[in-house]
Amino acid sequence: MIDVATDADRSVRTVTIDRPEARNALTVEGLEALEAAVDDAEESVIYLRGAGPAFCAGADLAAVGDLDGDSERAIEFARLGQRVARTIEDSPAVVVAGIDGPARGGGLELALACDVRVGTPDSTYGEPGVTFGLFGAWGGTVRLPRVLGEGDALEFALSGRTVDAEAALRMGLISRIEAEPRAVAEEIAENADDALTVLKRRIRDDRERATQERLEADAFGDLVAVHADDIDAVLE
């Protein structure tokens, strides 16, 4: 269900949600395999994609149905999805979501956990669970307001509407539209691994400003020390 491939130069790990017959909907086993594929990465960049004509439909509704209305089991399933999203968000690698076709519910929430979201012209986005009495519970109610702002997040989630790539770009759900999103992952991977990790950590930090600024300065000092020769080469 989860296919992992690494470039010959080991700079980009491609992680594919490989269940196209179900629009790459994720079961418990699929979520656990996705978590392992991200957690085991040694590459500086992870490229997350879906096989076939969809990115990810989110939670497999059959798996949700198998919970038999048991709220405790439902909470465990939600917490597993949240844990996978945190694994993506906290990975030292830069995680680029290449979104082609539908990203729905939990699939969109996993994309929101990624550092960079790139959609193809055929990509579409939605949180349709509200239309049948549910909502995505893999961290979407936390991350969606961060990405869109509270007002737009509320309208988008409460309406259950679907938006196309151009609308997603305007809203800030994605940062670029590319026919080949993987090129963005390759572009990022050309940069220094340690700088990528530091930048991700600093930008992701949500502590108070003074702490962030202190850690930012410390990280800058470390990088200047490590890359002194590279800086001299640029100045020549």
UniProtKB/TrEMBL annotation:
Fetch the Gene3D superfamilies from UniProt.
2-enoyl-CoA Hydratase, Chain A, domain 1
Instruction: Please give the superkingdom of this protein's source.
Output: Archaea
Question: Any idea which GO molecular function terms this record carries?
Answer: catalytic activity
TM region positions: none
- An example Pfam family from this entry, by short name, is ECH_1
Question: Which family is it part of?
Answer: Belongs to the enoyl-CoA hydratase/isomerase family.
What is the name of this protein?
Answer: Enoyl-CoA hydratase/isomerase family protein
